[in-house]
Amino acid sequence: MSAAPPAPLAALRGVRLTSGAVVDIALDGDEVLAVVPAGSPLPDTDGLILDLPGYLVTAAGAEPHAHLDKAQSWDAIHPPFGDLERAIESWHAFALTLDEDDTVRRARSTALRMLASGITAVRTHVDLLRGDDALTGVRALVRLRDELAGLMDIELVALGGPTVPDAVFDAALDLGVDLVGGAPHLADDPIADLHRLVAIARRRGVGLDLHTDESLAGADTLAAYARAVTGSPHPRTAGHCVRLSMMAATDLAALADQVRAADIGVIALPITNLYLQGWDADHAVPRAIAPIGRLKAAGVRVAAGADNVRDPFNPVGRCDHLETASLLVSAGHLAPEDALDAVTAGARDVMGLPAAGPVPGARADLVAVRADSLGDAVAFASADRVVIHRGRLVSRTTVSTETAASVPTRSAAPATAS
Q1: Smallest Cα–Cα separation from 85: which of 313, 410, 307?
Q2: Backbone phi and psi for residue 249, each to the nearest 5 degrees, phi listed first
Q3: C-alpha triplet 281, 286, 291: angle, nearest 5°
Q4: Which domains does the chain have, with CATH numbers?
Q5: % residues pLDDT > 70 (the chain)
Q6: Residue 124 near residue 353 (C-beta atoms within 8 A)
Q7: pTM summary value
Q8: Beta carbons of 360 and 373 less than 8 angstroms apart
Q9: 185: left (phi over 0), alpha (psi -120 to 50) or beta
Q10: 338-356 core/surface letters (b: 16 or more CB in 10 A; e: else)
Q11: CA 416 → CA 27, 235, 277, 413, distances in Å?
Q12: What contacts 289, CB < 8 A, 6 or more positions away?
């Protein structure tokens, strides 16, 4: 039996905001029309009305840095546990035999898990492959983007190394890829590769999303990136940036000024970088998370994502923006409010998407989570969720738990006097 199409919504009733207020929310098409105290009159609009007492409503999650072409390949590859270099070697060997239909299947499964958690926008990198067909992954993810267009927004980034010819980037962009990407810090000449990627994006009139400084003591490309794109009319972001976590405060402040002036959005990726970094440390293992709290305080636009999901770069992951938020609290020392912002409003901002959330005039991309408070949502991440994309109900998960009745422990009979 086929699934029903997304249902337009008119209102959410009895929901809690992160402020603690209980409200009713009117939706009009893809926009939030009104937010009023619960029980107050609402404007009349067309669509379903959902009564959601006990749910907290926030902006929907956004995943600003995914790799859907790699997702859920761990069991097929059986890679060794290890650092970035071992992960790259394992993936490159597997990618020589990459199958388009299998890539679509794995990517679809991952994207739909994201959707069920409340993520309605995903930016995914896709490898420009070695071997006979460099565009297998590109074709797969273009197919997936078209298939899921009514459920979620998907942006594609062409991820190519220094040996990938410019013509292959052009072919990927011609197929519908949105942005130019790469990892210049891994090249033999990082700055030359950086400038090549910037030149391709400039020539094609598209934005950039680069893997940047993805090691604790490796090449410094972020400052050169900032100098190269300052004043550009196109969007630019930098993912990973783990080297910044090792910088002295004065050095970081100087770099943050350059990044802010260049308007580069910085994306932290806690779960994958916690796994990939620090393998060579036998004590005082670093956390290896981009310091987005300090960057945000310096005026830099910041976000956070999950990056890889069950592939050689990360053997775990739940496709849940609240998992990322929880890690930002415990390993990144962000307050829950800031952590949630990084995976919702901040992520949409660096992706260039309209602001969303339970605010009049905002895009009606929302997620309702069964929770009593923001902290409760981040801590427990209940799977009971209602997901709304552009004013339409696109996913709903309801969990049922059955607990056996408690049986009192039988106590020993009291002793009696003889």
Answers
A1: 313
A2: -55, -40
A3: 155
A4: 7-60+358-397 (2.30.40.10), 61-350 (3.20.20.140)
A5: 98
A6: no
A7: 0.94
A8: no
A9: alpha
A10: bbbbbbbbbbbbbbebeeb
A11: 72, 84, 66, 9
A12: 242, 245, 268, 269, 270, 273, 274, 327, 328, 331, 332
The two tokens of residue 259 are: 């990044």
**Cβ-Cβ contacts under 8 Å for 102 (sequence gap 6 or more):** none
Q: Dig out the tokens for 357 from the structure.
A: 């959330």
Identify whether the C-beta of residue 393 lies closer than 8 Å to the C-beta of residue 368.
Answer: no
Q: pLDDT confidence of 217, banded at 50, 70, 90?
A: confident
Chain centroid, CA 28 distance in Å: 27
Could you give the angle at which helices 321-330 and 336-343 cross, rounded to 10 degrees?
140
Average pLDDT over residues 328-353: 98
Are 199 and 232 spatial neighbours (Cβ–Cβ below 8 Å)? no
Determine the pLDDT at residue 1.
39
Residue 417: per-residue pLDDT: 56
209, 236 contact by CB (below 8 A): yes
CA of 328: how far to CAs of 96, 214, 273, in Å? Answer: 35, 18, 12
**Residue 267, helix vs strand vs coil:** strand
